[in-house]
Design goal:
It is a multi-pass membrane protein. It is found in: Membrane. Belongs to the ADIPOR family. The protein is mainly alpha-helical. The chain has two domains: 63 residues, no CATH class; 235 residues, Up-down Bundle (Rhopdopsin 7-helix transmembrane proteins). The protein is built from twelve helices and two strands. The chain has a two-stranded antiparallel ribbon. Strand 1 and strand 2 form a beta hairpin. Helix 5 runs antiparallel to helix 12 and helix 6 runs antiparallel to helix 7. The protein starts with 10 loop residues before the first helix and ends in a 6-residue tail after the last helix.
Length: 326
C-alpha cells in the first residue's frame, strides 16, 4: 500500500498530455479551457496510462504495468472512476461492498440478538455494534484512499495515513470485542485492558497523522508503534489462559476464530509482500488477480471470521458464563 513519495512533475507533463494550443484565427471563438475532468476522457473512453507514465510518488508496484488512472487533481474525476474499469477497481469494490454490508449488519444484528438472546444487555448489543462500526470505518477509509490515490501527491499522502488509521480502528474493534468476551464476567479486568488498548491505539493514531512523524527518519518508529499495538492483544489472551485454562478459553473467548483470522491476515500479507502472482507474470494481473486484491479479500474474510468468533464466544458466555449461572 505504501508508496515512495517525491515531488511530482506538473500535471501537463505527466498525465493530461495536452498539446500547446495553436494561435486562433482572427474572429474565432476560443473554446472553454480543458478541465481535469474533461481531459481524463478521450472520445468518451477513459484515459488509462502505463506504469512508466505516472509520477514516481504514484508508482508502487512495478509488476502492475498498465491501466493506471492518470493524476487528475479532481475529486469528481476520482469518484467518477467507480464507473469504469482500471487497476484499482477491484481494490475499491472489494472494500466498498463489504463496508456497505457491515453497515447494514448493524440493524440485522440488533434484531438477531433481540430474538435469540432476549436477555442480552445493552453492553452486549454495544459490543457488536462497535465492532461492526470499526469495520465500516476501516473499509470506508480504505475505499476512499484507493479512490483518491491518483488525485495528487498531497491528497494521496493524507488518505494513505487515514487508511492506516482505519487499520488501527479495526484493530481496536477486534481487541475491545475480544477482551469483552475473555473477561465477560470480570468487568474490572475488562476495563483495565480496554484502557490499555484504547490508549495504545490513540497514541498510534496520533503518530500516524502527525506531520512531525512522517518521512523516512521516523519510519522505524511508526512501524514499531503499529506492531506494538497489534502485539498488545496477546496480553489479555495470556491472562485469560492463566485464569481459566487453555481449554476453557478456546470456547469462552472465541480463540479458534481469532487464530483463523490471524492466519488469513498472515497469508494475505505473504501474497502482498511477495507480489504474487504479478511478479511471476508482470502485466498479466493488472486488473484482476494481483496480490493486493488477494490481500483485500483475505482482510474481509478475516473480519467475517472475527465476527463469527465474537458471536460464538457470546453464545457460550450468555448460556454458560459463570456470572449468568443461577
Amino acid at each position: 500500500m505504501q508508496a515512495t513519495f517525491v515531488d511530482s512533475p506538473s500535471i501537463t507533463e505527466t498525465l493530461l498530455r495536452q498539446r500547446k494550443p495553436s494561435p486562433l484565427p482572427p474572429g474565432a471563438i476560443a473554446e472553454e479551457p480543458a478541465t481535469p475532468d474533461k481531459v481524463l476522457f478521450d472520445d468518451g473512453a477513459p484515459i488509462l496510462v502505463s506504469y512508466d507514465e505516472i509520477p514516481e510518488w504514484y508508482q508502487d508496484n512495478e509488476f502492475i504495468r498498465h491501466d493506471y488512472r492518470p493524476v487528475s487533481n479532481s475529486t469528481h474525476a476520482c469518484f467518477a472512476s467507480w464507473l469504469y474499469l482500471h487497476n484499482e477497481t477491484v481494490n475499491i469494490y472489494s472494500h466498498l461492498v463489504p463496508a456497505v454490508f457491515f453497515l447494514a449488519a448493524e440493524g440485522m444484528f440488533y434484531q438477531y440478538l433481540q430474538v435469540k438472546y432476549p436477555e442480552a444487555t445493552l453492553s452486549d448489543h454495544a459490543i457488536f455494534a462497535f465492532f461492526l462500526l470499526t469495520a465500516v470505518i476501516c473499509l470506508g477509509l480504505s475505499t476512499t484512499y484507493y479512490t483518491l490515490m491518483n488525485h495528487s501527491l498531497q491528497v494521496s499522502e493524507l488518505w494513505l495515513r487515514l487508511d492506516f488509521v482505519g487499520i488501527i480502528v479495526l484493530t481496536l474493534g477486534d481487541f475491545v470485542s475480544g477482551i469483552y468476551m475473555v473477561f465477560y464476567c470480570k468487568p474490572l479486568l475488562r476495563r483495565i485492558y480496554w484502557g490499555m488498548i484504547i490508549s495504545l491505539s490513540c497514541i498510534t493514531i496520533m503518530i500516524l497523522v502527525n506531520p512531525k512523524f512522517q518521512g523516512p527518519r521516523w519510519r522505524t518508529f511508526r512501524v514499531c508503534t503499529f506492531v506494538g499495538t497489534g502485539l498488545s492483544g496477546f496480553a489479555p489472551l495470556i491472562h485469560g489462559i492463566s485464569i481459566y485454562g487453555f481449554s476453557q478459553m478456546m470456547v469462552q473467548s472465541g480463540m479458534p476464530y481469532y487464530l483463523g483470522e490471524g492466519g488469513l491476515l498472515i497469508l494475505g500479507a505473504h501474497f502482498y509482500t511477495m507480489r504474487i502472482p504479478e511478479s511471476i507474470k508482470p502485466g498479466r494481473f493488472d486488473i484482476f488477480g494481483c496480490s493486493h486484491q488477494i490481500f483485500h479479500v483475505l482482510v474481509v474474510l478475516a473480519t467475517v471470521v472475527q465476527l463469527i468468533g465474537i458471536l460464538s464466544a457470546f453464545d457460550y458466555n450468555y448460556n454458560h458464563g459463570e456470572c449468568r449461572l443461577p
